[in-house]
Amino acid sequence: MHSFKILLVSPEAVPFAKTGGLADVAGALPKALKALGHDIRLAMPLYRQIDKSKYFLREVDSNLSAEAAGRKESFALYEDGRQGRAFDTWFVSHPGFFDRPELYKDPSTGQDYIDNEERFAFLARAVLESCRATDFMPDIVHCNDWQSGLIPAFMKVDPRFPEFREIATLLSIHNIGYQGNFPATSFQILGLDDSLFQPDQGFEYWGMVSFLKAGIWYSDIINTVSKRYAQEIQTSNEFGYGFEGILRDRAGDLFGVLNGIDYDVWNPAKDELIPAKFKPEKLEGKAKCKNALRRKTKLPMVRKDVPIIGIISRLADQKGFDLLAEVADDILALDLQMVILGTGDKKYHDLFIELQAKYPKKLSVTLGFDNELAHLIEAGSDMFLMPSRYEPCGLNQMYSLKYGTIPIVRETGGLADTIENVNPARGTGNGFVFRKYDSREMLNAVKFALEVYRNKAVWQEIMVRAMRQDFSWEKSAGEYVELYRKAIAKSGRGAQVAG
Ligand code: ADP
């Protein structure tokens, strides 16, 4: 097998900085690619929350510069210096752009930073300059989401980077709802020829500059994070967020690759963040985790056969909490307890705080980002609710399966690709699935789950079946390698690299 030199660019990656599932992907896929024998490097910004001493960061080059908004911006390139690190990571250090309290939003206003287009246009060029300065010329540049969408564009049309013209590119779309669209005036910041800012070219989108459109337009191959979502985003505005036409135009180059799970991190048999370990052959630890979860979230220690439904989520419209709002009273009238961990839109913060005040014995709400509690919720809950309006892949339902916490999901995107409705008579299924985006349907799915839960033997069978499923990265990484191969074949250097 030919091994590839891969540059993976991501605006976030575990363990360094995370706001969502992309970080899990960017932290785990490189390990799996390395295990397959590829030469992989991850590149990302050096944000404030990345502790230089914790990761033994060392300077690769302190004297680099990249252009943004017509200025030469100086930056330094650092690398992960840990002994025994799983793969190499580059950090682009520009304190003015990245030494800030959060990754994308200003916490004092709750709005995106006003110079995000400048920050990520700079990042795109800084990454290419870093390749140049270190002589790391990849066979494939794998970009992720709008924050790195300009890289394929700069590689193909920016006169500053002629040696990148024929290097292959792949863009992964983790969520089409986030497009990096900026006012037309932002095109100046990119420092490209004005003739490129036309509707039939790669940057212009309804009078705006779209970083994601540029990525889609100029990448050799595009993928999203489940097969179902790859189809959905081509169908309608509801799923494609206006990009359905652009994506249909590139249907032949658009693929779906399900995210894998990092079972070094999410695995009840070796999870150091939970009070008792467990596995399919030895489930006792799960009851201990359930008690610990009740203690930690201050839920009363009611009968142990009262199930706990867990939720861990960004609190955004995408995640379907308006359904929960509609039937919250019906759900909380049932014989169950519920634990919610999340952060996001204020309206959901208010909603959940109000519900908690109304049902203190049944509902515990933690507003914030708390990785340790997320592990305890996966381990200690019996069921996990994801009523998403759309869900590109979704990771928590797959974590839940591993922890024997049975998902209740809406049939969309990656949820549809990973969860099959339980059929107790046939002994099949790994979760509870409802189809329509409708609160009554969701309520019925919860009721059905509770009914099945009452039969201990059947429930245990479902748990064990779920825990034994394998969504590890190995298979998905192999599919990415296939996409790299396709991208390289399409790019100018196809023959060269393959030979
Ligand atoms: P998305 O990327 O749309 O937010 P995913 O399901 O793909 O959704 O991934 C979300 C990831 O972020 C999961 O690893 C989940 O555990 C984590 N997560 C989300 N919200 C929180 C939170 N409030 N605290 C801790 N972890 C969270």
Describe the structure.
This protein folds into 2 domains: 5-260 and 474-490, Rossmann fold (3-Layer(aba) Sandwich); 284-470, 3-Layer(aba) Sandwich (Rossmann fold), CATH 3.40.50. It has 499 residues and is α/β, with parallel strands linked by helices. Helix 4 links the parallel strand 8 (140-144) and strand 9. The mean pLDDT is 96. The radius of gyration is 23 Å and the shape is globular. The chain is 37% helix and 20% strand. The protein has a 9-stranded mixed sheet with strand order 3-4-5-2-1-8-9-13-14, with helices on both faces. A 6-stranded parallel sheet has the order 17-16-15-18-19-20, with helices on both faces. A 3-stranded antiparallel sheet has the order 10-12-11. The protein contains 19 helices and 20 strands. It has helices at residues 21-35, 95-98, 116-134, 150-157, 187-190, 211-218, 227-232, 237-240, 244-249, 284-297, 321-332, 346-358, 371-380, 396-402, 413-418, 439-453, 456-467, 473-490, 494-498, and strands at 5-9, 39-45, 58-68, 71-79, 88-93, 105-106, 111-112, 140-144, 168-173, 181-183, 204-205, 208-210, 221-224, 254-256, 308-315, 337-344, 363-367, 383-386, 406-410, 432-434. The longest helix has 19 residues, at 116-134. The termini are close together. Adenosine-5'-diphosphate is lined by residues 20-21, 24, 175, 312-314, 341-343, 369-371, 374, 393-396.
Using the coordinates shown, work out and report the CATH topology of the largest domain.
Rossmann fold
Q: Point out poorly predicted stretches.
A: none
Rg calculated over all Cα atoms: 23 Å
Termini Cα gap: 12 Å
Structural class: alpha/beta
Bound molecules: adenosine-5'-diphosphate
Estimate percent helicity: 25-40%
CATH class of the largest domain: Alpha Beta
Strand order of the largest sheet: 3-4-5-2-1-8-9-13-14
**What form results from the Cα inertia axes?**
globular
| Beta-strand content bin | 15-25%
Oligomer: single chain
Q: Can you summarize the main beta sheet?
A: 9 strands, mixed
Number of domains: 2
CATH superfamily of the largest domain: Glycogen Phosphorylase B
